[in-house]
Amino acid sequence: MTDHNLRLPAEWEPQSAVLIAWPHADTDWADRLADVETTYVALAAAVTRFQPLIIVVASNELRLRAQALLTGEGVDLSKIRFVELPYDDTWLRDSGPITLKTDDGHFQLTDFRFTGWGGKFGAEQDDALVAGLVGEGVFGKAAHKRVDWALEGGGIESDGVGTVLTTWRCLTQRHPEQSREAMSAILSDSLHAQRVLWLDYGYLEGDDTDAHIDTLARFAPGDRIVYQACDDKDDPHYDELRRMGEELAALRTPDGRPYQLYPLPWAKPILDEGRRLAASYANYLIVNGAVLVPAYGDTADDEAARIIAEAHPGREVVQVPCRPLIWQNGSLHCITMQLPAGIV
């Protein structure tokens, strides 16, 4: 395998499986474990309609519990592989592998340093997760490359043909000593990208990732970008997301054309003991033949699903109840990592 042939696939390209980790009483989900398990069961049911699912569990006891819950809801266990490994939490978008591939079927598991979103939370076991999965033989003969630089999968978006989209707010928090140019060079080198596009605006209250791009703006096929908008002028997010929309409108494709933009509706504020939760519709997951879209029990849920379907033509849209997830400041995309076709 020659490195210069590697690229970071787009999420809408064919997949082998989706990777998740099951919540348990020693994770931050402990206080509302039963609630969040309903989302994990719904997610597993949705994914396994379209492709295999790999579930990391912390113990055999947890595997048996997950199997019982899934069986109770009629989920096809033949589509699921369980892998037993230790982990701190279940946000596999950020602790899981960022997989690069060549067009002739070779893969590289790019294993960036995971710091618990800049040291906010303990992350020693999560940082070792990719190596653990490799050790369990999950990825066959794929190369494993450790990169000693903090980056989470939720912090980058790829169009599959050499463009990476990210946010300054997140990466300058992770690497305050580095310039934008220096970080662009590291991203280009480690992800084999031709260019890096930056957003300076955009954030969600209740998001402790420091403005991950996957809560804000997502590439879609055909030079489209789906993004979280806010139409409530009285909401504290209004100006910031309006400015982000202007930044997106100013971006150009590699051949100089503007992107086709798909603004998503804004859910009414969801509070938990007075704390605003980050209910982003941009945090959806693409699988083979479908898009799994977060639903929050809001009147905007159906309109968000309609717009995402329009931006991803030819795919079925499945709504997954995600209100329990945002209690811990993430949503559907944050708890998953897709694996490209051929790696499993």
UniProtKB/TrEMBL annotation:
Q: Which domain of life is it from?
A: Bacteria
Question: A GO BP term, please?
Answer: putrescine biosynthetic process
Name a GO molecular-function annotation.
Answer: agmatine deiminase activity
What InterPro entries does UniProt report for this protein, alphabetically?
Peptidyl-Arg-deiminase_porph
Spell out the SUPFAM superfamilies in the cross-references. Pentein
Task: Write the record's keywords in alphabetical order, separated by commas.
Answer: Hydrolase
User: Does the keyword DNA repair feature in the UniProt annotation?
Assistant: no
Q: What is this protein called?
A: Agmatine deiminase
Q: Which organism is it from?
A: Dyella jiangningensis
